[in-house]
Structures are given as C-alpha cells and as structure tokens.
TrEMBL record:
<dbReference type="InterPro" id="IPR005358">
    <property type="entry name" value="Puta_zinc/iron-chelating_dom"/>
</dbReference>
<dbReference type="Pfam" id="PF03692">
    <property type="entry name" value="CxxCxxCC"/>
</dbReference>
<protein>
    <submittedName>
        <fullName>Uncharacterized protein</fullName>
    </submittedName>
</protein>
<dbReference type="InterPro" id="IPR029063">
    <property type="entry name" value="SAM-dependent_MTases_sf"/>
</dbReference>
Amino acid sequence: MAATARAFKVAFKCTGCGRCCTGKGGVAYVNSSEVAAMAEHLALPKATFAKTYLRSVNGATALRQTDDDSQCIFLDGKRCSVYPARPTQCRTYPFWPQQLISKYDWTLAANECEGILLDAPSPETITPDAHILKEVVIHEVHRSGENLTYDDIDELVSELEPEMLDAFQEEVDAKYQRTILHEDDEILVMDSFLDGLPPTRSLHFVDRLELVQSEILLNEDGSINDAALALDVHKGLCVGLALLPTERLHNLRIGLLGAGAGVLPTFLQRHLRGEVLMDAVDPSRAMLSAGQRFFHLIPSDRLSLHEAMGEAYVARQPDASLDWLVLDVEDGNAAPTELRAPPASFLTPAFMADASRVLTGDGSLAINVIFPKASGDADASLEMLRVLLSPHFASIYVLALPKNAVVFAAKRERTEAPTALVNDGSIGRPLAATIREQLAASTLRRLGE
C-alpha cells in the first residue's frame, strides 16, 4: 500500500450516501471508550446505551442492526445519528487494509461505496499515501483490541517517526497479500493470504469481479488443500448424496452442470471410493482450461470434461442414464427481480421433465439457488421451484445456506429428510465429514410443509 508497492491510485470523497452502513450481516465492532463517547453524545447512561444499542458478535461488542438486519441501528435516512462520536471502524472506512491490497479489492469496495473514484477526474482528487497509511494504522490498532477512540489513536500516530510507520506498513503488507496467477479478457485467477482467514485460490469473471466463481483452500505453503471445500454452496450440494440409496454410492453416474474450474467434481472424484462416472459440464472453455492449469482438474476414466451448455448436455443423455444431476449454474445477466441461479432457461417444465427423464428411478437432482437481488422474499422463489419440480419429483427439500440455498429433488418418495449420512465405506472421510457437518449446521426441510 505504500507508494512504492501500490500499483493503482486511490481516490475517495464521501458523498454521505449511507451505503457503508447498510446490508444484512453488517458488524461494527466497538470498544468501551467508543461506547462511552457515543453514550455521552446521546446524553444516555452508559448502561442504558449498552442495553439498547449493543450486542455480542463472536465474543466481541458490536453495534446492533435494525430488526430486519438491513442496516446499522444508528443510520437515520442517509445520516449517522452518532456521527461526531462514530466508532473507529466507521471513521477509517474505506481505508481498510483488506480493501487496499490490490486494484481488484479497491474495485470491489467501489461496488459498495459511491465515494470511491476508480477513475480519478484530476490529480487533486487522489488521496495522499500519507493519509491512507495513517488511516490503516489507526484501523489496525483499533482492530488489535486497544481500548482507545479514533482521536486517541490519531494523536499517538501523529507522534510516530516515519521509520516506525514504514515498518508498520511492511507488517500490514505481510498480513494481506494477493497474487494474480492469471488474468485475461474473460477471467482472473488469484491466491489470497489474508489475516484471520484461510488462504484460498479463486477464479472470477472480469466483468463480475465481486462474484467468486470457483474457490479452493490452500495450505500455508501455497499448495492446494484437497481435503476440504471452501465454498458453502459446494458443501451444501454434497448433501444431495445423502438422498441417494446407500448401495447406489458404490456405482455412481453423475452429471455436474456448471463445473466452472472443476473444484466440486475434483473433490468428488477424489473422495468417492466406489465406481464413478462423472461428467463435468461447462460452456466456458476458459473456465475448464483454468481448472486444469490452476485447480487440479484432471480428466480421467472417472471424470470427463464437456464444453457444452447444460441444457444441451441433458437433452443428449439417454433415459435413466444418471443417478445424480447437479445444477450449479449462475446467470450473470439476470434481472434484479430474477433468480441468479439457476438461469431462466433451466426453470421451465420442459427442462425439469428432461432432467427427470435422464435420472434413474431412485436418482435425484441438486440445485444451487441464488435469490433475486431486489427481493428479500426467498419463500416465493422456493415455492416457484417446488411447483416446477413437483410433477416430476416425489420428494423436494431445501437446505438454507448463509447466502443462498440448495434445493434437492428425489424421484422416489421419502418419508422424511435424512439427518445423517449412512456411510458404508463408499465415501472418503473428508466428503463424509462435509456432509455430516452441513446436516448438523442447517436443517434440511421438506418444501411445502
């Protein structure tokens, strides 16, 4: 982030839009000195302030969100009602170190903050490096747990020698690192080593950088960790194996639509011990190529790669030729009121009939569901899927995930949803653990009940 290290210019001017204070799951951490300052600003006893406005998140104190979890409790219209005494985390935004690692991160931040200027109109609008470094230092000191307000830390930082600031900069740089492995007009692949998070390798479309298309965990030395999955949706999709008859797991035929860089099919191929014939299908040659170069996607007699549209692949399959069909396909051009996954072309009676046709009598379907951006009514989307699936599938379930859901549809009637995986040795330990942990963490419930 120092002038010698940052390969991009940073420009920011707050517009007072309030977007940094909105969003489900937002967490603004505070310490007791900041609590005292905010309570004084509102002329409230500290105990009353704490009872009304504070909560515990991961063992730390944070400001409450509104009841619908849509924004900070202190956001009034577009303004903060404790603005003069707002917490350090808020005052240092957007100059957080994780947002300044690379142009990629700064671009992502710009999607949430209209005050970030990716194309600075003039040199005067560029934020000086000295100011950025000061804000980063203040943010990290606060994050370390020091019981100080922004002004307290600012006063201390102003007394530091430049050499000490440079040393701090080097320390921060070492804690937040990204390495671009590949970038072209279509995709970007990078490794990320971020403080407090497991290291990962991820793939993104350059026109939708904010969306992680594929991601794997790395070991500390940068090698691929093939014993675990990084993405919740991949873990959730694996639960679909628990809906299949146990004996079927010894001889599986799988069609996986939306293979991307091949993270899920590679994991399944490694940890399904029985006879497996798996087709990994994706329309993007760049994605499949990147999978082979960077994600250990290796074709074999158990795993075949198909550059094709998912609908066309299904249409070509013989009747009862698959035991398990996985739909992990996202529509990057979906309207705000439409499901982002699966695409509209999959949400037709004709396609669902075709999906049912290619499945065996006890086969099942697993669908990654990403709800519309402009609607908070997930139940309406799930009901639409239930109505679409029910003519062809006897049992339909949903597994709620933090950011989306997975819908499962089994052709054979089940009296109840599986609550555990029956593993007779056909599934390796990492895959079996993934399924057990997902079933323990989220309720698999029947749709329509």
